[in-house]
Amino acid sequence: MSQPYEFSVAQSAEEIRQGRLSPVELAESLLSRIDDLEPDLRAWVTIDREEVLSAAKDRENDLQAGRPAGLIHGVPVGLKDIFYTDGMKTTACSRIYADFVPEYDATCVAKIKASGGIVLGKAVTTEFATSDPSPTRNPWNAAHTPGGSSSGSSVAVATQMCAAALGSQTGGSTCRPAAYNGIVGLKATYGRISRYGVVPVSWSLDTVGILVRTVEDAATMLQVMAGHDPNDPGSSAQPVPDFLDEMRLAERPPRIGLLSGFFQDHSTSEVWQHTQEAAQKLAGAGATVEDVALPASFASCHSCQRLVMNVECAAFHQEFFQHRADEYGPRIRSGIEMGMLVSGVDYLKAQRLRRAFREDMTRMLDGYDVVLTPATPAPAPRDLNTTGDAAFQSPWTSSGLPTIVIPSGLSQDGLPLGIQLAAASWQEGRLLGAAQWAQKVLGVNLSPPQNA
Amino acid sequence: MVSENTKDEILQELTEKAAALWGQDRAQALAASLEQTASHLWDIRNADPGTDTEPGFYQ
């Protein structure tokens, strides 16, 4: 018989709605799971057990009193420790923010609560969501990086310590750790989910990320958090559709553009062969799969992403950095320093190139529901001094287009492999539908040894 | 649009700036990052977004 901690977001919410599972029972199951696994995996910064159980009891009382249940009523959600939580420390796993206690919730956290969700705890991030590795361990093999920067969120979801967690992506920080841990990672269109109350890396790149085990749960969490927020200048006023409905409508054999070129050249032969086999399987099930060429503007997109990230990161940290540079980890410190060396003219050129690139990518997506690439150039590297390679994510972050990673198999070394799908801006419904269809066709649900 | 500077010239310029800001030792310690940044700068200085393309801060 399944334990409550094994349930997806959709299963948990349905069991609670039907009265077959109480929010308190679910919270206790997840807390007990965390007690069992946390000493080895180190995925969490803060768990306020009493607060979690108290919120769960409140949700239970809501149901008993007949108050309307939200989409994720009674479901605990993990938060990367860069999301502001009213009255709870938000450290960004840094010395600079070590004692920071926000006085309000990030907009997306407030929306989770408004939909009946419960804050389970704050998950480990790399320092300030950049690239100095975190202490979190990869549940598939502790000698390999779990990826970053959303390392704790990804590992927590992979090992059933929670069914959903929030991450963020400035380069590849949601979809890459999702791939390394064998779960689903969704980065929505830039501007779809408010960044208000999220410790920034880079204002014009940062996107809230969703880490879950099923595509349906990605749609559910997107539904909970999407929408315009006047407090976030990057937030879009695009209407918010019913993503679950759109996903179901789009769940059919999609028109897929297979991106080779850069993605083939930078993949290991094992990863590229695996991706081709996945594409063939999708074509065999009815998808139209065609090779598609990258636009010329792709050539500078990684450089644009890196320069913009460093400059904006330097701008955000300028005041702290003047007096406390020694308190930063080596990678974020050098990133900030590099940002300080870039001229305004070069920064603006990078932003202009990003815009041109986005327009080219939008044109490239004409005629396709989604484009497909490997999720990462290789499985999680056997190196705890790196968080891996974000080269397959940063084009989508730089252009702002929505992208999703789903698990697609295991490497010869027994590590997760994934495929990545991307769609045109604001087409998350189409993206989720294609991903849902592909997940069913591929039939791959990965589970690390801890889940046995 | 082609940059008048070579990658080495850009690296030289960055290294001098770094040394002026943080001293020679720190500039030396940042050698790998400086080289990478010079490469990124060379890439964007040799790319053309089109004269009429304005920056796209918020996508």
List key phrases describing it.
heterodimer; A: 452 residues; alpha/beta; eleven-stranded mixed beta sheet; 15 helices; 11 strands; 40% helix; B: 59 residues; mainly alpha; 0% strand; elongated
Notes on the protein architecture:
- The complex is a heterodimer of chains A (452) and B (59).
- Chain A has 452 residues and is α/β, with parallel strands linked by helices.
- Chain A has helices at 9-17, 23-41, 49-64, 107-114, 151-158, 175-181, 215-225, 243-249, 262-265, 269-284, 301-324, 330-341, 344-364, 394-399, 428-442; strands at 44-46, 76-80, 118-123, 164-169, 184-187, 207-212, 255-259, 288-292, 370-374, 403-410, 416-422.
- An eleven-stranded mixed β-sheet of chain A has the order 1-3-2-4-6-5-10-11-9-7-8, sandwiched between helices.
- Helix content of chain B is 63%, strand content 0%.
- Chain B is built from three helices and no strands.
- In chain B, helix 1 packs across helix 3 (31-45).
- The longest helix of chain B has 16 residues, at 7-22.
- The chains are: A alpha/beta (452), B mainly alpha (59).
- Chain A binds chain B through residues 189-191, 203-204, 233-234, 297, 299-300, 302-304, 306-307, 310, 334-335, 337-338, 340-342, 346, 348-356, 358, 399-400, 425, and chain B through 14, 17-18, 21-22, 26, 30, 33-34, 36-37, 39-41, 43-47, 49-50, 53-59.
Strand content of chain A: 5-15%
Shape of chain B: elongated
Give the oligomeric state of the chains in this entry, treating copies of one chain as homo and distinct chains as hetero.
Answer: heterodimer
User: What is the average per-residue confidence, as pLDDT of chain B, rounded to a whole number?
Assistant: 93
Biggest protein-protein contact in the assembly = A-B, 37 and 28 residues
- What's the total helix number of chain A? 15
Which range best describes the helical content of chain B: under 10%, 10-25%, 25-40%, 40-55%, 55-70% or over 70%?
55-70%
N-to-C SSE string of chain B, H for helix and E for strand: HHH
Strand composition percent of chain B? under 5%
